[in-house]
Specification:
The model has no long low-confidence stretch (mean pLDDT 94). The protein has helices at residues 2-11, 13-18, 40-47, 51-63, 74-79, 83-90, and strands at 21-22, 27-28. With 92 residues, it is mainly α.
Length: 92
Amino acid sequence: AYAAFNQAMAINAEAAYQSISMGASQIMGSWYARLGYGSASEMFVKFSTGEREQIRAMARFIQTDPGSEGHLTLLEAARAEDWHEFARTYNG
């Protein structure tokens, strides 16, 4: 897995960071702006500091989910304890 990532890093580091899932919450680097980071590489560095940053980012990810037609947002699904819908939305 790291061989492919390292190869991608050699071509375009920022694109490589945007293409990976990060931290315990496995949030894609492509969501960096929605989560308040300046770049996917900044998100990676911040996530590398520990679980606290990863949990904060997951909370922001849940809070900022715009939802999609016919489905609950992540926050709505969590509040309703509809874990099937939460998982469907979270995992795409």
